[in-house]
Amino acid sequence: MAKKSEQIVEDLFRTEYGKLVTGLIRFFGPGNIQLAEDIVQETLITALDNWSMGQIPDNPTGWLVQVAKRKALNELKHQKIIQKHQSSILYLSNPEAELEHIFLENEIEDSQLRMIFTCCHPSLSEESQIALTLKTLCGFGVKEVANALLASESTINKRLFRAKKTIKDSKIPFDIPQGKELENRLDIVILTLYLLFNEGYNSSSNNKMIAQELCLEAIRLVKLLSTHFKENKELYALLSLMCFHVARFEARIDYKGTIILFEDQDRSLWNKSLIAIGISFLEKSKNAEKLSSYHIEARIAAEHCMAESLANTDWRNIYSQYELLSLVKPSPIIDLNKAIILSEIAGYTESLELLKQLEDNDKLPTYYLLPATQGFFYLKKKNYSKAMHYLNKAKELKPPLSELKLIERGISECKEKKVSN
Amino acid sequence: MKEFLLILKGDGMNHLSPSELQSIFSDYKVWADSLGEQYLSGQRLEDSGALFVDKKHEIITDGPFLESKEIIAGFFLIQAEDQEEANRIAQSSPHLGLYSIEVRPVAFPKMK
After folding, report:
1. How far apart are CA A56 and CA A281, in angstroms?
2. Residues of A in contact with B21 (CB under 8 A)
3. In sequence order, which ranges of A329-400 are alpha helices (DSSP H)?
4. CB distance from B22 to chain A under 8 Å?
5. Does domain B2-105 have CATH number 3.30.530.20?
6. Which of A325, A297, A318 is nearest to A234 (CA)?
7. pLDDT in tens, A125-150
């Protein structure tokens, strides 16, 4: 067997899946997402068969596009009547030309933009929007979506099924909204991509690779939007925020998968070039008509990333940004963060008082981070019995695995110290 | 050297994600190369096809006909010294996990 190229680009199947599926959804209409997915799946399997037996083609992407197009045309012959609820029925008169057009490089981007708006349509629940985006635009499998979102495969399957049904039944278009509608819809899209990114960033999934891919996909899609909606400052703010976070990815989880506290992170592991990109996006986000929560969060992340050391961090600035943030987007989580920052300015005692007040907040009792923070602050104050009390409380609230390890480490430290006292 | 048929059983590839498909592809290449001359042939089977049970009834279906874990998804023909070696080869296959693999010696070795 003579072989020329043994390797194909990493992620080729996954990225091509996303492009082909969006292209074919444009062709068959958004009511036929399943059909498009089936055709692309078959295309990849055909590639697997052919490439395994012989050679990998010189242009694997082109090969996949050709096969997918052929399969799509066959499908069209099979089911003569396809209800396309979209305005354009051009492809019915000349399907070959339509397909040819759809798979032009810049048209693929256009299809992906439309698909973002279809996936993030307000008729779909937030969780369906995220699952559908990952499945179609990002080429994740059901198992991978389930892994990333910490849900069961059957839950994700149901979510996807419902989302596709809603899109079909409500005749959700495959278009970029225009005029007044655009602003609202874009807000929803941005929020969904922000949440998608957070799923990856805060993922307690053991699969670090999937978590990272999720973050990079979110960045890719926001970038795509920013090249189209150049005037939208929120997109740049969000991009900047995402870059700052991803820059610290390597430093925040150790080789055992345990989260490393911010103060203990090795700053030399932070990705300098990503931080620089984050800063340039932050510049571009300036002079916005309205200050969004993304802007403020980006500023906070920037302050952290640009400080030379923990001691050099401008905590007062960060504190005032959090105050601003709690005005724009009031939430007990932000109050919690504010209280944590206060410990850097005024000390643990004052911060712990504020944290104590938060215990009464209705929304926080089930949130492990509050008692975990209290526990670690008491640990710093060498008050081991209180520390133990709060850390145990945090442990009961089922923290993600990566944080559980840290909490357990704190508990055993309390035990040791109490014994030696 | 005897010949062995490795019969892969399980639900096609339809439920595999693009990344899983790609990793099968890459791992498969490495595996087949590592077998060298011992690898004779291999092919995936489509889920569809026909099923005949006896002479009287002509049963032709589009398939899949059986429970998904019983579907023959593909096969490999390999050469090995004995059953143990063939088993080891099957165990090293990247398909194991996604499919169950039956390792069966070919009854009458070809005359050489």
Report:
1. 39
2. 13, 44-45, 48
3. 332-346, 348-358, 369-380, 384-396
4. yes
5. no
6. A297
7. 989 999 999 999 999 999 888 887 87
